[in-house]
């Protein structure tokens, strides 16, 4: 069933001109500007793509954009899907499978996250080197998963080491502070309590968010190399926890975004 749906989604996008993209990019909350740099863009709104979920979060726009970025054919997801919107893991990761079937060979992911590691400050970037899945499920837990890849997908190194090393070198060269750490993904949409922030620190998380991990699991299942960067939008200090201000989080992401765009574009040049 999923194979047939994927074929229909891909056929629709190919009919629109989505031709063998090399790079797939998922843009997180407040991080849509990279899409503006695509040359000769072709857009496909999610509600027009067969079997695609719809973005329901007001600051996620909901379209795939195909074109050229730093001389490479790229397809960009402007707006992603989350468990907290009522989607399941198959919905959330369906676009990754579509981009893979279109032809991408590398996947770039961004997200907005809160700092558990209090050495990180608002506006910092964190290169994700590992993750913890606290979303209570897996996008590989379905009957026909073995048709798409190894059921027991290896997750010993979920984030591509050569791309991570290249990104660190680029950050040093461009004088951009790029932390490295562990991202923990929770369900949301509520923010964490003080006790929950303390727990996340104890289990080894440096930053917390509500996305990314399902996409990364599926990309690993498809043997698709991934690099992922979190924009730190707030500091989650349980000893001095302030009420959350979503508008401020979005604004912080937007201010830090040019640094992330620079890193991604410079890495794409080297591929």
TrEMBL record:
Coiled coil: none
Keyword Glycosyltransferase attributed: yes
Matches recorded under CDD domains: PNP-EcPNPII_like
Key words, A-Z: Glycosyltransferase, Transferase
Record InterPro entries: Nucleoside_phosphorylase_d (IPR000845), Nucleoside_phosphorylase_sf (IPR035994), Pur_Nuc_Pase_Ino/Guo-sp (IPR011270), Purine_phosphorylase (IPR011268)
Pathway assignment: Purine metabolism; purine nucleoside salvage
Entry GO MF terms: purine-nucleoside phosphorylase activity
GO CC annotations, alphabetized: cytoplasm
UniProt keyword Cell inner membrane present: no
GO biological process, one term: nucleoside metabolic process
Pfam family, one: PNP_UDP_1
Assigned EC number: 2.4.2.1
Described function: The purine nucleoside phosphorylases catalyze the phosphorolytic breakdown of the N-glycosidic bond in the beta-(deoxy)ribonucleoside molecules, with the formation of the corresponding free purine bases and pentose-1-phosphate.
Membership in a protein family: Belongs to the PNP/MTAP phosphorylase family.
Name of the protein in its database record: Purine nucleoside phosphorylase
Species this protein is from: Zobellia galactanivorans (strain DSM 12802 / CCUG 47099 / CIP 106680 / NCIMB 13871 / Dsij)
Gene name, Swiss-Prot/TrEMBL: punA
